[in-house]
Specification:
eight-stranded mixed sheet, hydrolase activity, AB_hydrolase_1, AB_hydrolase_fold, Rossmann fold, 2 domains, hydrolase
Length: about 260
Amino acid sequence: MERTIQKKIAVSGDSWVTVDVYGEPDAPGLVVVPGVMSDAYTWRHVAGSIAAWPSVVVVNRRGRAPSGPLTNSYSLQTEVEDLCVVLDEFDSTRALFGWSYGGLITVLAANERPIHQVIAYEPVMRPFGRHALPDLKVAEETADWDRCVEIVNRQISGFSAAHVEDLQADHDGWAILRRLSGPLHTELGALNATLPPDVMARQADQVDLIIGQCNRGTAPYGTSFDNVRRHVAHARVHELPGQGHLAHMQAPAGLGHLLNTLAAI
């Protein structure tokens, strides 16, 4: 499926979000919500591999170009409200898919309005990465985006120094990560400032939660996944073999295939 349009949608606080639309814009489809350190562009290969819905709408959340700023009133609820505005614009949406922080946004949005199906890949919830907030604040204040990327990978994700060196060796990939680290401290702070409801995805007819095989039962993503799972009583759980948190980058076709198989009838 190829991208057909990019659309700008006004949201609260004099900000806006853009969406990349693949397939038939007016047809019932899937809305994709990326998480922290990602944007609509980094999800293009996954969107292009999806065929089970006639349209795929990838949200470029506020805080990442060409969408608007986070604004001073930013919170997790801001993200939920932004997603609801997108759903108003694409009112034939049949399913939501969110990754990581985006997964949390989708299950919370399904508390506020009915949705046929919610799919979330390793959604995270409070407490998550809270210990890294002081270091991220310093890095943000000094615009040290290299340090931000290092903190995410070493202090939050728990990757090795060698892994970070491998990332740095890919100059184009590292530049993308630096660019996407701008809103990181604010987004992680918002996640940890919000006490989640006892029940998530209350108004979803069907909920499918996905975990990468490599993260099953391990911190931080597997344990946060388990926390979310306890708040979504009616969820079905699926495992993506051989993958961790970054399946959209490392195995986009495989993730797209799994999403196709999960499409509700």
